[in-house]
Write a structure and sequence with these properties.
The protein is built from nine helices and seven strands, in the order βαβαβαβαβααβαααβ. It is α/β, with parallel strands linked by helices. It has a single domain, classed as NAD(P)-binding Rossmann-like Domain (Rossmann fold), CATH 3.40.50. Strands 3-2-1-4-5-6-7 form a seven-stranded parallel β-sheet, sandwiched between helices. Strand 2 (30-35), helix 2 and strand 3 (56-60) form a beta-alpha-beta unit.
């Protein structure tokens, strides 16, 4: 489905990002997988090459580091001459009730979840405009749509992703660049389990399908949005939540 397409996936060391990198590579894409910690993707890359015969290139940089981001896109342009897919998956989750939210918490959340995404979109769109095609996929969250107690900063940042995606879609449509957002519900990742197992059980009870989503559930939707199956779909927010009640 992604034969010969070039993709950049941020936050690919675990969870949704890792599952998406695996699926894209197996679907024929040339994948650049981003992570912050140098060397953390090396084992995954080696295993994928040995077992599946596909190549994934690790790119180690912090999405909030403008110099690192610029260097990554410069490398992709030099090596591939194009970029077909950007998956903005990297993000952080910090919870606090109103009255306990620090300025540093808000700033850090927005730097990673919003400001970095805006910068990545700008660099990606420059490459995509030249080829008159591309798909940008931004990971939002169910709480970016519905809100949730104790998640003022996080839900606000994910709500910003939705409005950013809709605006970018309008601006880039004339260049045949599609921009869409995915709003996952409760997904079985390390980030979600950080809320504590007692809260996890409470959340699962509020899911219509009575199970957590898997990273692969989200990766499959990323594949759809990255592929030519969705060539006329842009500016949309796809909820992938198993009928969850936040």
């Amino acid at each position: 489905m992604l034969n010969k397409k070039v993709a950049l996936i941020t936050g690919a060391s675990r969870g949704i990002g890792l599952a998406t990198a695996k699926l894209f590579a197996k679907s024929g894409a040339f994948v650049y997988a981003n992570a912050r910690t140098i060397g953390c993707l090396d084992t995954f890359v080696a295993e994928l090459e040995n077992k599946c015969g596909v190549t994934v290139i690790p790119l180690y940089f912090d999405v909030t580091d403008s110099d690192g981001v610029k260097a990554a896109f410069t490398r992709i342009k030099k090596e591939q001459g194009r970029l077909d897919i950007l998956v903005n998956n990297a993000g952080i989750l910090k919870d606090a009730l109103i009255g306990m939210i620090s300025g540093d918490m808000i700033r850090e959340t927005f730097e990673v979840n919003v400001f970095a995404v805006a910068e990545l979109i700008q660099y990606a769109s420059k490459l995509m405009k030249k080829q008159n095609s591309g798909s940008i996929i931004n990971l939002s969250s169910i709480v970016g749509i519905r809100g949730n107690r104790g998640q003022l900063a996080y839900s606000a940042s994910k709500g910003a992703i939705i409005s950013m995606s809709k605006t970018a879609a309008k601006e880039l449509a004339e260049y045949n660049i599609r921009v869409n957002a995915i709003a996952p519900g409760m997904i079985d990742t390390d980030m979600f389990h950080s809320i504590g197992e007692e809260h996890v059980k409470e959340r699962v009870a509020g899911i219509g399908m009575k199970r957590l989503g898997t990273p692969e559930d989200i990766a499959n939707v990323c594949l759809f949005l990255a592929s030519d199956l969705s060539v006329y779909l842009t500016g949309q927010v796809l909820g992938v939540d198993g009928s969850a009640i936040v």
